[in-house]
């Protein structure tokens, strides 16, 4: 089980697999069991946005166990949250913001529970 951090610019936190493009993120969601997913919205001019990833998660049922939205775009966060919130299945935790420093440290230490 892996944790995925999708961002075209920011450094990857410890304990995550980095997806620099939306396609990399979707491939990881399709091919791996994902525990925690953290999404950016603005992925660069040559890529889709995090909103497209949120739509694909819903359309393809690619839900990880936990989703965070670390984007600095208020509009993008709103779009992703509303897309995911409307369809999130029971057992999936959706956060309307980034991970706390405590959660990041927990993941870095490998202390997550199944």
UniProtKB/TrEMBL annotation:
Q: Name one Pfam family in it.
A: cREC_REC
InterPro entries xrefs: cREC_REC
Q: Which residues form the Cyclic-phosphate processing Receiver domain?
A: 2-85
State the name under which the record lists this protein: Cyclic-phosphate processing Receiver domain-containing protein
Q: Which organism is it from?
A: Paenibacillus albidus
